[in-house]
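Re-run with default settings, no changes from the original entry. Doing this only to confirm the output is reproducible before filing.
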Amino acid sequence: MQDSAPVGQKLVHNFMTSDSAPANTSPKAPALTGEKALSFPMGETLPALGDALEVAPGILWIRMQLPFALDHINLWLLEDSEETATGVRKGWTAVDCGVTNPGTQAAWEQVFAGPMKGLPILRVLVTHMHPDHMGLAHWLCAKFNAPLLISATEYQSATLSTHGTSNFGGVGTQQFFSANGWNNPEDQEKVNERVFYYSKMVPHVPETYRRLMDGQVVRIGAYTWRCISGFGHSPEHMALYSQEAKVLISGDMVLPKISTNVSVYTQEPEANSLSLFLNSLKKFADLPADTLVMPSHGRVFRGLHTRIAQLVQHHEDRLEDVLVACKEKAGSAHDMLTVIFKRPLDFHQTTFAMGESVAHLHALWYAGKMKRFQDAEGVWRFQTL
């Protein structure tokens, strides 16, 4: 069965066409590549587990361990205060939380007693629903009776995933991967068994939240922060920019070393996630060149626009690779793993790589550069036109 791209989706971002390619709307990647083209004002210095580094006045960087190949997450503490009946109460806003496990909770306890100087968390702000960001939000909010600030779509997605309906495992995910060419029986069984992958790291979500929306301004301590929504990596990611501090909390939208995962998932199998992501990067175009970027993974850096140009170029290169690979013979998302990813992938990495492979194929399909059809086994295959 051959399938044409939905008409409405074609209007999202035909970036492979001559009049709307991201390379024409973003600066070219400079001669220096990767981290060499960026500057790192703190050098190789990283905060020790349970400790913090001051990035800017009133802004602390803490770092928690993760049980993945990507072995850490950066979290942020922003000096804050609130008016009470007895006067001003000083404390902190925590940005992102780490996964739920005893080690992360123990590290937080060290932070409470050390860098936080015994002051309470007044607000918990979560950039998006992924477990390394959302995991301990329930614990922090309950411990300090603090509200959760998050976008509505991320909150609802986290709530749904915590109750077992997620994009990260189970029968639906297994069927989605199978329909895109990943049919190894042993791996498929592992995917089925991952039904509680999310809820193991995010066992609970706070019962209430305060909504963050694109363009909203949030006052935290001495600084105001503008919310910048992003799509493609997660449902409604929120980055935060402070003009006074010239600081961007980029979350997972802009990372200094790796390209953030951009996937299509089982719950939205027709998504054009890569186009959404590339369009979202344009929202950072008006930020100053000397903006200090505080990413969720990697080191604090300057060179935001350079890094965005690199990310755009990275995806354009991978798209071109896919077009070439599918020119003579139609390929599935699973076939494209070795085309898009130039390194060996373990099982955990493959679950995310599959979604990203589908995202690249869908981007080309929606742009009219490929056709899509199902073969006799029900696998979606794509061929360059």
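The chain is about 30% helix and 20% strand. The chain has a mean pLDDT of 92.
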